Amino acid sequence: MSTLFPLLAIDVGNTSTVLGLADEHLRLTHTWRVRTNRDLLPDDLAVQLHSLLSLTGARLPASAVLSSVAPPVGQNYQLALRQHFGLEALEVSAETLPQVSIELDQPGSVGADRLCNMFGAEEYLTSHEYGVVVDFGTSTNFDVVGRGHRFLGGVLATGAQVSADALFSRAAKLPRIALEAPQSAIGRNTVHALQSGLVYGYAEMVDGLLRRIRRELPGDAVAIATGGFARTIQGICREIDHYDETLTLRGMTLLWSHQQRVLGRLD
Ligand SMILES: Nc1ncnc2c1ncn2[C@@H]1O[C@H](COP(=O)(O)OP(=O)(O)O)[C@@H](O)[C@H]1O
Ligand SMILES: CC(C)(COP(=O)(O)O)[C@@H](O)C(=O)NCCC(=O)O
Ligand SMILES: [K+]
């Protein structure tokens, strides 16, 4: 049913909003990353979206899927799509997701982005029973999933930039630094010492948590890194097997097609 494509996927995070356009094979033909701005109204968002599409010569979307962990922005995108593009976006939530198993105390409270990651991890679960998506965003999420759309739980850790900002705001003599790896763990100046703590320290935290998670699981787990800070940190972590920049967006398109199939709208 080609009338459903292109499919627009919008992932609203607390720092960035990542958008993608997928063709009928669910291949992402375009992706964009813009700042999440809580001040933008539906008309502003429609103008921005229209500009992105025309800048790249992309076709207008015929359907949409939306995941938001910044509620007012998600609602504003919903209105923008309805009023200016004539689209009713599928909003990702535990309540609207059929045939998945969210094995949490309160399934309804899980972040929509984490449900998308569960679908994005699917392709890595051919040779492993379990997967851990480490999503380096405002918060660093570890999403522990099992084959067959099982969300098993995870970890929410303070994001690297948030940790750095907290330190700078409380220590008068510390300069703001770029979150980059220094040459050695032993820093011989203030900047390198800070980078060591923030980047190598962060990588060790991630490796340590992944080892703990793997010990708690009854089978092998593959670990995949995604999110804004993943590019910097994934090569430093020893416990991460894959880096996948578009895992969340691709997960959204898979979740959408799963939903369409359950509803009989897609073969
Ligand atoms: N292009 C980039 N290169 C390196 N780090 C980035 C980039 N974009 C975002 N970050 C870092 O990633 C984190 C935010 O990730 P992001 O995916 O934007 O968050 P969220 O999913 O919460 O919106 C911050 O630590 C930020 O410094
Ligand atoms: C943990 C999060 C804040 C991560 O958001 P992000 O860092 O991607 O902006 C988000 O997934 C969220 O608000 N989750 C709700 C709580 C939960 O997942 O248990
Ligand atoms: K995110």
Features:
six-stranded mixed beta sheet; globular; 7 helices; binds adenosine-5'-diphosphate; five-stranded mixed beta sheet; alpha/beta; binds potassium ion; 267 residues; binds the ligand CC(C)(COP(=O)(O)O)[C@@H](O)C(=O)NCCC(=O)O
How would you describe this structure to a colleague?
It is built from 7 helices and 11 strands. By secondary structure, the protein is of the alpha/beta class. The strands form 2 sheets. Strands 6-9-8-7-10-11 form a 6-stranded mixed beta sheet, with helices on both faces. A hairpin with a 3-residue loop joins strand 1 and strand 2 (about 15-20). Helix 1 packs across helix 2 (about 70-85) and helix 3 (about 110-120) crosses helix 7 (about 245-260). The radius of gyration is 19 Å and the shape is globular. It binds adenosine-5'-diphosphate, the ligand CC(C)(COP(=O)(O)O)[C@@H](O)C(=O)NCCC(=O)O and potassium ion. The ligand CC(C)(COP(=O)(O)O)[C@@H](O)C(=O)NCCC(=O)O binds next to helix 3 and strand 8. Potassium ion binds near residues 113 and 227.
SSE layout and pairing:
Blueprint: E1 7-12, E2 16-22, E3 28-35, H1 42-55, E4 63-68, H2 71-85, E5 90-91, E6 101-102, H3 112-120, E7 130-136, E8 139-146, E9 150-158, H4 160-170, H5 190-216, E10 221-226, H6 230-233, E11 242-243, H7 247-262
Parallel strand pairs: 1-4, 4-5, 6-9, 7-10, 10-11
Antiparallel strand pairs: 1-2, 2-3, 7-8, 8-9
Helix pairs in contact: 1-2, 3-7
The structure holds adenosine-5'-diphosphate, ligand PAZ and potassium ion (K).
Adenosine-5'-diphosphate (ADP) is lined by residues 13-16, 36, 136-138, 159-161, 179, 227-229, 231-232.
